[in-house]
Amino acid sequence: MKTQYSLLLYLSLLLVSLAAPLLLPDYRTQLALLWVMVVFALTWDIMGGQMGYNSFGNILFFGVGMYACAVIQRDSGLSYFPALYLGIAAGGIVALLLALIIGNGLLGLRGHYFAIGTLGLGVAAGEIAGGWDYIGAGSGMTPPLFPGELSVRDTFFYYAFFVWATITFFTLRWLYQGRFGLAINAIRDNEDKAEAMGLHTTRYKIAAWSITAFFLGVTGAAMGNLIGFIDPKDVAFAGSTYGVWMILMAIAGGKGTLWGPVIGAVLFHITQELFWTLLLGWQRVALGLLIIIIVLFFPQGILGWIRERFSKRRQSEQPTLAHTTPPRSEQQEQST
Amino acid sequence: MTQPLLEVTSVSKSFGGVEANRNIDLSVPEGKIIGLIGPNGSGKTTLFNSIVGYHPVDNGSIRFQQKEITQLLVPDIARLGLLRTFQQTRIYSGMTCLQNMQISAPDTTTGFKSLFAALPMDQMQKINEMLTFVGLHTKRDILAGELSFGQQKLLEFAMALIASPKLLLLDEPTAGINPTLINGLIERLKIANQQLGITLLIIEHNMRVIMNLAEHIYCLAHGQILAQGTPQQIQSNPIVIDAYLGAS
Amino acid sequence: MGSKPASLAHTTLASTLVPPLTNTNNIIMLDNLTILIDAPVFIVDLLVNGILIGAIFVLAAYGMALVWGVMNIINVAQGEYVMLGGFVTLLVVKAGLHPLWGIPIAACVLFILGLILYRLILYRVVDRDIFISLLATFGISILLAQLINQLFGADVQTIDPGLGTWHFMDGMVTVSVTKVIAFSLALGLGLCLWFFLKHARIGQAIRATAQNAQAARILGIDTHRVYAITYGINAALCGTAGSLVIMAWAVHPYMGLPYTVRSFMVVIVAGLGNLPGVVLAGLGLGAAENFAGFIAGTEFQIAFVFLLMIAILIWRNRALKRQRRYLK
Questions:
Q1: What is the pLDDT of residues A2-49, one digit of tens each?
Q2: What mean pLDDT is predicted for residues C162-174?
Q3: Is residue C212 part of a domain?
C-alpha cells in the first residue's frame, strides 16, 4: 500500500476513533469493548495466524490479569488511580510470568494437540478461581468504584482501551517486520525445517506466547474495572465463549495478516451487538452457527478472499506458475 | 593428516527389528565432496537422519569437528554448522523466496535482543547473489509454495548455502530435476564446494552425477558399508555392481 | 482503603504476594485425605462409584476413537451428544413413557442427528486440516449447548427410574442400582459395537475405509456414506450414554466439554486401536476423578479433569521427545 494512502488511512481512523465517544455517547461501553475485541483478535493471531499454534485458551491470561489487578486494588492501600495503574502493570506481568511457566511444557505440543491442550486452560482456571477464597471464590471480586460519574468512567476507559489497542497494533506491526515475524512464519510453515536450520524455535514460541499473555493481561486488568464486577466463570474466564470468538474474529478477517484480525473484530463486535439486540437469548446459538458458517465457507477470511480475487486477476494477465517443470525459455535461463 | 570434519564410527540403527544401519564407519575430510550410494532401502537416508540428530542411534559415535554430537538435538547440531536438505523438499511455502532466504541467513545478533532484531540490510546483497546463483532471482517475491518442484529444490539448496554451513548433507539433490538442468546443478555444487568452502556429503542415485562430483564414494547395501573408494574404484568393483543389479 | 498511609501500604502489598498457604481450601483437602486414611471403607465407595461412571467415559471414548480413526476428525461436540441423549430421555419421560425407553429412543434420535450433521456440515471438513474440523465441531458444540440452554434452561436435570440402592459393608458403601445397570449396559454396548465392527458388512466397510479411504473408494465403497454412518453410530453411542447419565447421575446444558475432554484423554492414553486400554483408562479416569472430587472438593473436579488432560498430553509428548519425536 502506498505510503500516502496508508498515512491517510491511519489518520482518518484516528480521527474517527477519537471522536466516536463524543458522537455516540450512549454506546461508549460498546465502543470500548470494540477495542477489547481488537486486542483479542490481534493477540490470538500472533500465535494462531502467524505462528500456526492455534490456542483455544488465551482467555486464561485475560482472566489472570483481571484478578491480579483486582487483588492489587484491594490490598495495596493506594488511592484509585495509582492502584489502578499498578494493578494494570501487575496484570500484564503476572500473565506474562504464567505464560513463561506453562509455556515450556505446553508449547512442546504440536498442531491439534496444542489446540486441545489449551482448550482446558480457560475452563480450568474459571473452576479454580471459583473455588479459591483468596480471590473471592464463587462470589468473585469487586474492584473499587471509579472516582467520578459513569459517563466520565466510560469515556476514560474508552480512550484507555483505544490507546491500548493502538499500542498492540503497532507493536505487532514492528515485530512482524523484523526477524521475529519471519521466524514465527517459518515455524508455522514448517517447524521441523526451522529446527533443522538451527532456528531457536523454542525461544520464539515462548516469546510469542509471552507477548500474547502480556497484552491480554493488561486488557483484562482494565476490563475488570470497566465492568465493575469480576465473576470467575462469566467475566474473567468466559472460556467457551470468548475463547473461541477470538479465533473466529481473526479467521473471519483473515488470519496471518495485520489488518485481518482488526477487521474481523469490528465485524464480529457489530454482529454480536446486533444479535443481542435482535435475538436476545438466542444470540449465543446464532454465534455458534456463525462459527460453523465461517469455518466452512470463509476460512480464508475477508482479506484472504480479497487476496485471492486480486491474485486471480493478476494470474489471468500473466502466464501461470505451473506446478510442473518450467517452460523451455526459463529452463535455458536456469542452466547458465 | 588433519582430523576429518565428520567422523561416523560403528553407528547402528534399527527400527523395530529391521536393521537400517549396521556398524557404519564413515569419515568426511574437510573441503571434499563425498558420495553415498546404494540401492533403494540400503539405509542412506537413515544414516543422514542419524547424523543430524533426527533420531537417536542405537550405538556408535558421531563426531563433528572432533566434537561428540551423537546425543545432541537437531537444532543444536544445525547451529554447529551441519545442515541437510531433504528428499521431499522442505521450504517455507507461505513465505516468499526472499523471506525464505532471509530467515535462513545466519543470525549475527546474539542474546535476547536477537529475537526482535530488524533484518540486517547488509545480508540482502548476499541473498540476492545467492538467489541469482540458483536462478531464482526473478522469482524472489513469489511464494515458495507456488514454485515448481525443481525450483523448490533449488531454493532449498540456496537456503542451505546462505546459512553458511561447514558441512552440508544433500539427500538426492538431482532427483526429480529436469535432466537438462542437472549439469547446472552439478556446476553449482562444485562452486559451493570450491568457492564457498562447504564440505559436501551427497546421497545420489544418478551415477553420472556422483561419479563426476565426488572424490570418494561409500557404497551402502542392506544397511552396511559394502565398499568405498574413488569413483573409478567403485565403478569397477564387482561387489558394488552385484549389489545394484542384485537388489531389484 | 485509600486513606491508609504509604508505609502501611508497603507491608500490606508484601503480604499479598504470598497467598496464605494455610488457607481454608488446603485445610479441607488435608482433612478429606485423613478421612480416607482413617476410614478405608470410603475408598471402596469412591472406587466403586468412580468405576461405575467410568463405563460411561469408556463408551464416549470409544465413539471418539471411532470417528477419529475412521474420519480423522476430533469431535469436540462429543460431550454435547451425551448431553442431548439425556435431554431426549427427559422429553421421553415428559411424554409419559418409562425412563428406560429413553435409552433406545435417544440412540435413534442421536443417530439420525449424527447423520444430518454429517451431511450438512462435516462432509465438507473431512478431507481438510484437522484444525478446521476442530473448529467446526466446536461450533456444533456451542450451538447445541446454547440451544438446549435456551429451550430448557441451565438447571441440572435428573430422572429417577426408581430402581433403588444396594448397600454394602454395613451401609458404608452405597451403590445405586441404576448406576450398576448403566455400567453393564455401557460396557455391553461397547462390546456389541466391537463385534459389529468386526463382523457385520457395514462394520467391515468402516474398517476398510479407516485403513485406506482411497482404496475403499476404488473398491466401490461409498466413503461418504460410511463416514455418515460412523458419525451417526458415534452420536448414538453418546446418546445412549447420556440417557444412562440422566438416570444414574445428572445432566445440564454445559456438561459437554468435560465429557469431550475425558474422551480425548482416554483415547490419548489408550491409543486408537486399543479397546481393552480404552476400558481400563476410562474406568481408571472415573475412579481418579471421584477421588479428586472428594479430596479437593467438587468445585475442583472439573478443573482436575482439564488439568489432568494437559498433564497427560505434556507427559506423553515428553516421553516421545526422548526418541526425538512428538505427538502427531
A1: 688 888 888 888 888 888 888 888 888 889 999 999 999 999 999 999
A2: 75
A3: yes
Considering its fold, how many domains does chain C have in total? 1
| Cell numbers found for residue A136 | 473471592
pLDDT given for residue B180 in this prediction: 84
Measured in angstroms, the CA of C321 and the nearest CA of chain B are apart by 10
| Cα C166 from Cα C173, distance rounded (Å) | 8
Instruction: Please list every residue in chain C whose beta carbon sits closer than 8 Å to the beta carbon of residue B49.
Output: none
Q: Where are the beta strands (DSSP E) in B125-231?
A: 167-171, 199-203, 216-221, 224-229
Would you call A195 and B135 a contact, using CB atoms and an 8 Å cutoff? Answer: no
Residues in chain B: 248
Chain B residue with Cα closest to C320: B55
Give the orientation angle of helix A28-45 with respect to helix A150-177, to 10 degrees: 20
Which grid coordinates are listed for A149? 460519574
Of C258, C264, C234, the C-alpha closest to C112 is C234
**Phi and psi at residue B106, to the nearest 5°:** -65, 145
Average pLDDT, stretch A244-271? 93
CATH number for position C60: 1.10.3470
Look at residue C146 and tell me if it is in a domain: yes
Q: Is B202 left (phi over 0), alpha (psi -120 to 50) or beta?
A: beta
Question: Which residues of chain B, if any, have pLDDT below 70?
Answer: 1, 109-110, 245-248
What confidence tens digit (pLDDT) does each residue in A202-211 have? 999 999 999 9
Q: What gap in Å lies between CA C46 and CA A244, rounded to an integer?
A: 35
Q: For chain A, list the domains and their CATH numbers.
A: 23-140+148-303 (1.10.3470)
- ipTM, interface predicted TM-score of the complex: 0.91
Does residue C20 form part of some domain?
no
- For residue A141, report the phi and psi dihedrals to the nearest 5 degrees: -130, 155
